[in-house]
Amino acid sequence: QFGVGFYSSFLVADRVTVQSRSYTDPDAKQYRWESDSKSGFTLAEDAPEDYLEGSSGTRLTLHIKKGNNEFLDNSKLATLMRKYSEFVTFPIYAWTQRTEYDEVPDGDEKDEAGNPKTKRVPRNVEEWEQINKQKPIWMRRPREVTDDEYAEFYKSFSRDFGTPLAHSHFAVEGEVEFRSVLFTPRTLPFELRENMFDENGRNLRLYVKRVFISDKFEGFVPRWLTFVRGVVDSEDLPLNISREMLQQNKILKVIRKNIVKKCMEMFAELSENKEEYKTFYEQFSKNLKLGIHEDSQNRDKLADLLRYNSTKSPDELTSLKEYVAQMKEGQKSIYYITGESKKAVENSPFLEKLKKKGFEVLYMVEPIDEYCVQQLKEYDGKKLICASKEGMEIEETEEEKAAREEEKKKCDNLCEVMKEILGDKVEKVIASDRLADSPCILVTGEYGWSANMERIMKAQALRDSSLSMYMSSRKTMEINPGNAIVKELVTRVAADKSDKTVKDLVNLLFDTAILTSGFSLDEPNVFASRIHRMIKLGLSIEDLGEDDAAKVDEEELPPLEGGEDASAMEEVD
Questions:
Q1: Cα distances (Å, whole numbers) of residue 343 to 317, 359, 367
Q2: What's the pLDDT tens digit per position in 248-280?
Q3: Hey, which residues does 336 pair with through a beta bridge?
Q4: Helices vs strands, H then E, count in the chain
Q5: Which of 2, 47, 285, 415 is least surrounded by Cβ atoms within 10 Å, i.e. has the fewest?
Q6: Phi, psi (deg, nearest 5) at residue 96
């Protein structure tokens, strides 16, 4: 029976000869089938001198086309057979040639010990060498395979010299039957370091009845699982299945579902070992977070695998499950803050009130965290709240609420004046309930970009600038009613709304709030001019030079009132 595999020989051969003799009859004749794939075929009885060695068998002879001489190279053929037929159950041999060296006497000469001197003489050895010595480990029962055997098998096909962190060996029976061994590498594969979607980084191999089919097609596993290594051997897929057919095959969808399920179980089991899981998370945390973003079916299970530093655990990673277990009484939400680094967020003014009340805040400092929390809205019934966005409500007692409302009323007049001074730079100015020490901050809308996300999007080389117009939230300035600077501004505004000193100080507070809130300054030179001016006042320098005077915009930098140095410093204070 000739199938697709046989006819593929005409891709490299212009003529194919098949000689065959039946094994059922010792006296059977041998026949020869021959074709050039163009003018049909011939079938005739073979001459006795051309009979195969032994009583029966079949020989295929490929007469290679010009330009395909690489297939006449023994090493090339051995490589192909190892790749595609390494785990075929019946033995496959290749005719090999190698040079060995024999030690023979070198004349009558002897060495110092009196032994005859020898020399090495090359000898060509030609023999049949078995190609498929590797046994398909997935065909054995898991309890029969040792950890060393799993490690050796992993190294043999993964191009990795290290031992795997974990493995999962299983068989699925029912409407679809297949066997599989999956491995979690100890380090991120080299191909995925620069591009986590690199097709060359995929190393989950599909076999059909122990014959290798492919490891280079999408859809076999989700993108976030590209780092998993292993083999899948199906009994139901046809051997001649194409890559295009694989993408649409229903059997493959069942296989994919089971692979994801087993991977989740493997990671969950690995998380029980704190040290091993720390190694795993350092290497593959981005993949898990990508899974949160893309894989809605497994989002809840993946959330259990996430780990973060926090205000209560700055040096050790904590899980969301641990966070919920140690939440303070009365706390209803999970608080987090995003930023460029742990150092940048751990002293952020957004955390002041939360720290004071003893609420734990998670540090999300990887760019992919921004995409992750867009999809992970809640965990275990607790809503995830960003500390740098609007809509954050901190649980308070009735006394605390009453005191805060009283303080807010005192700032109403100042908020109106600050909004007039800042104009379109902010959407509104309100009294804050999240600040404890800092005078002011800038928060973004609940559903828009955070300051960190805005920074990430600005760094995109091929970004669509029109998207920023819709997603960049209008900033809300929150002021701290209990801060000494704000209290003094309240007093000054109450005395004189048109006080020019207030305008200068409000602009300076706005610029510092931009920086402390994680944004970037649109006009850093204006901010620098204000700082330089404060320095000159501190150094009692009265006159500005011509160059400096030219840089100062009178609208932005009105002169401070008071002529004497001492009074000028009092105004700044």
A1: 15, 19, 15
A2: 678 888 888 999 999 999 999 999 999 999 999
A3: 362, 386
A4: 20, 20
A5: 47
A6: -120, 155
- The 8 Å CB, 24+ separation contacts for 445-449 are 445/389, 445/390, 445/473, 445/474, 445/476, 446/386, 446/389, 446/390, 446/391, 448/389, 448/472, 448/473, 449/473
How far is Cα 251 from Cα 278, in angstroms, rounded to an integer? 35
**Of all helices (H) and strands (E), which one includes residue 233?**
strand 229-234
Report how far residue 447's alpha carbon sits from residue 471's, in angstroms, rounded to the nearest whole number: 8
Ramachandran class of 107: left when φ > 0, alpha when ψ lies in -120 to 50, beta otherwise: left
HEC states along 238-299?
A: CCCCCHHHHHHCHHHHHHHHHHHHHHHHHHHHHCCCHHHHHHHHHHHHHHHHHHHHHCCCCH
Q: Which of 81-95, 292-306, 457-471 has the lowest mean pLDDT?
A: 457-471
Backbone angles phi, psi at 449, to 5 degrees: -70, 145
CB 227, CB 236: distance < 8 Å: no
- Over range 296-325, report the average pLDDT: 93
Q: Is 97 left (phi over 0), alpha (psi -120 to 50) or beta?
A: beta
**At 142, which amino acid appears?**
P
In Å, how far are 134, 168, 299, 344 from 209, measured between CA atoms? Answer: 15, 20, 34, 55
Which residues touch 12 (CB under 8 Å, ≥6 apart)? 62, 64, 65, 68, 71
Given a cut of 70, is residue 552 above it in pLDDT?
no
Q: Residue 64: is it exposed, middle or buried by C-beta count within 10 angstroms (0-12/13-18/19+)?
A: middle
Beta bridge partners of 302: none
Q: How confident is the model at residue 372 (pLDDT cuts 50, 70, 90)?
A: very high
Q: Is 498 exposed, middle or buried (0-12, 13-18, 19+ CB in 10 A)?
A: exposed
> Would the pLDDT of 141 be above 70?
yes
Q: Is the pLDDT of residue 439 over 90?
A: yes
**Distance between CA atoms of 226 and 484, rounded to whole angstroms?**
55
Cα–Cα distance measured from residue 387 to residue 355, given in angstroms and rounded to the nearest whole number:
11
3-state secondary structure of 54: coil
pTM of the full structure: 0.77
Average pLDDT, the chain: 85
Facing residues of 124 across strands?
A: 99
Q: Among candidates 415, 442, 410, 432, which has minimal Cα distance to 353?
A: 432
At residue 28, what is the residue type? A
CA 279 to CA 186: how far, in whole Å? 7
pLDDT in tens, 109-140: 777 777 888 888 899 988 888 988 878 899 98
Strand order in the sheet with 41-45: 41-45, 30-35, 13-21, 57-64
Cβ neighbours, 10 Å, residue 355: 16
**What is the rounded CA–CA span in Å between residue 49 and residue 109?**
51
The letter for the amino acid at 251 is I
User: How many CB atoms are located within 10 Å of the residue 49 CB?
Assistant: 5
Q: Which amino acid is at 114?
A: G
